[in-house]
Specification:
By secondary structure, this protein is of the alpha/beta class. The chain has ten helices and eight strands. InterPro entries: AB_hydrolase_1 (IPR000073), AB_hydrolase_fold (IPR029058), Carboxylesterase_BioH (IPR050228).
Length: 306
């Protein structure tokens, strides 16, 4: 099913490309928040199991994907700006739920701390309450590569660290996607990395204290960069939270192999629709054999996050 696309203006400053997968039978809308350097294509496989149950909204940040042609790029965008964009989209589309991936979790926590009207539940995936040493090493290695616009080595760094457990085909997609990025996207990511390295974990914990809705934190068992143990640090600060660890999965969770896809799907749908049992074979699993990986009616997904 093809989405309805639109450009949504945010406060007269940003023009945001959105993709709205409508489900006439659904009474809930979920909005998905990308990680760094990613576009709406990142969630191609996630949409496959969410759209039969929800209206699903995807969007590109002002500097990325199909939004970047509609915006000027004279200054970097802060995580606070991304949180404001998310809040406006929640209001515009009357979203009820949020799902974030990786560093999209920073803007999501900031937004949820403002208690947006209508939001009932949120999933924070591949995010942790602190920047641990492996993540710090990865980010520090990336700073100079990003500033220099060294496309090949940025791609190799991502594929050799947070993307190390991806199948070969998706690593090739990552490399291809990174080589096509504009200079301002590297400068944006450089700004983002410096911002992350400079801030304290308490920033996210303080946000968590203000959140009243139930949260689910999902992390991969093999993810050494945003570990399940570090995600559980939120337990002392969030009023209502659950935690799920996806066995034999790294940072990219459901994209790494079929079992991880199935287990991530079960965890998300079990939380988002707690009164509804999730049939084991309700949605066919994606092909992760290194040969084929496409969603029906879409191009192969280009998947990068940091």
């Amino acid at each position: 099913m093809r989405p309805e696309t639109a450009i949504v203006e945010i406060h007269g400053k940003y023009q945001i490309h959105t993709e709205h997968y409508r489900n006439p039978a659904a009474d809930k809308t979920i909005i998905l928040v990308n990680g760094s350097l990613a576009t709406t294509a990142f969630f191609a496989q996630t949409v496959r199991y969410l759209q039969p149950r929800f209206n699903v909204l995807l969007y590109d940040q002002p500097y990325a994907g199909q939004s970047k042609a509609h915006n000027c790029h004279d200054r970097p965008i802060r995580k606070e700006d991304e949180a404001e964009i998310l809040l406006e989209l929640i209001e515009h589309f009357r979203a009820n739920q949020v799902l974030s991936f990786s560093w999209g979790g920073a803007a999501t926590l900031l937004a949820l701390a403002q208690r947006p009207r209508g939001i009932e539940r949120a999933v924070i995936s591949s995010f942790a309450a602190r920047v641990n040493q492996p993540m710090r090493d990865y980010l520090e290695r990336g700073v100079n590569l990003l500033l220099a616009g060294d496309r090949d080595n940025v791609g190799r760094l991502i594929n050799g660290t947070i993307g190390k457990h991806l199948p070969p085909l998706l690593k090739r997609f990552n490399q291809r996607h990174i080589s096509s990025l504009a200079e301002h996207e590297y400068l944006q990511m450089h700004f983002h990395v410096r911002e992350v390295l400079a801030e304290e974990a308490q920033c996210y914990l303080d946000c968590a204290k203000a959140i009243e809705i139930p949260l689910l934190f999902v992390n991969g068992e093999r993810d050494e960069y945003t570990t399940a143990a570090d995600a559980r640090l939120f337990a002392e600060h969030v009023r209502q939270c659950q935690f799920r660890t996806i066995a034999d999965a790294g940072h990219f969770l459901d994209m790494e192999h079929k079992t991880a896809w199935h287990d991530t799907r079960q965890a998300l749908l079990g939380f988002l629709q707690p009164a509804t049992a999730v049939p084991a074979m309700a949605t066919s699993a994606p092909l992760l054999d290194g040969q084929r990986y496409t969603a029906a009616g879409s191009r192969p997904a280009q998947r990068v996050a940091g």
